[in-house]
Design goal:
Layout (H helix, E strand, L loop, with lengths): L1 H10 L2 E2 H8 L4 H9 L10 H18 L8 H4 L2 E2 L1 H19 L15 H17 L7 H16 L2 H28 L4
Antiparallel strand pairs: 1-2
Length: 189
């Protein structure tokens, strides 16, 4: 993350495509983390919608086995300011550090192996849609689930990936409850 912040400072911001290029072929876990964390930034803007949409597109590409990532120019060319990257590092680091306390690389590796991104594409897609929804504070639980899964994949800890799938069920239930409550507040439905 600090590499992205340094690069954003030198270029006065980065596009999403630039950030993904800097990540290289780091794997699905790094891409998930990169695209999920900006939705946690507590500043005004459509971060959840933009990054959730990008993550949904990327998850479909992983499910289909694409070798390189592609985003439509509407998302890929979206510039993210240096301040946003600094805020991302400041707000995301505590969450990532908390998750990393539980990580043991190589544990239950079957659930964090090279085939897992194909199997995780559907739950990640559902979480990405939940992040993209314009629900106030509704993206916190899905982003937390995405971070847990991503760190499990990065560290090859299958137990953390399974824990992330459990958090996914909770996050999707919370999102469903928020949508149901919001729908009940609209009198014409």
């Amino acid at each position: 993350m600090s590499r992205l912040v340094a690069e954003a400072r030198s270029r006065e911001g980065l596009t999403i495509a630039d950030a993904l290029d800097l990540m290289g072929k780091s794997g699905f876990g790094f891409v998930m983390l990169l695209l999920a964390l900006p939705a946690l930034i507590p500043i005004p803007g459509p971060f959840g919608m933009v990054f959730g949409s990008a993550l949904a597109i990327v998850s479909i590409q992983f499910a289909l086995g694409f070798r390189s990532l592609w985003l439509p120019s509407l998302l890929a060319d979206r510039r993210v300011s240096t301040n946003a990257f600094e805020a991302l590092e400041r707000h995301a680091s505590p969450l990532v550090r908390k998750i990393e306390h539980f990580v043991r690389p190589g544990r239950m590796e079957t659930f964090a192996g090279p085939r897992m991104p194909y199997l995780l594409a559907l739950p990640v897609f559902c979480l990405a849609v939940a992040v993209a929804l314009p629900i106030p504070f509704g993206n916190l639980a899905p982003v937390a689930a995405l971070c847990v899964i991503a760190i499990g994949l990065i560290e090859r800890d299958g137990l953390v990936v399974l824990l992330g799938l459990g958090v996914t069920l909770i996050a999707l239930a919370v999102t469903g409850a928020l949508l149901y409550t919001a729908a009940g507040l609209i009198p014409w439905i």
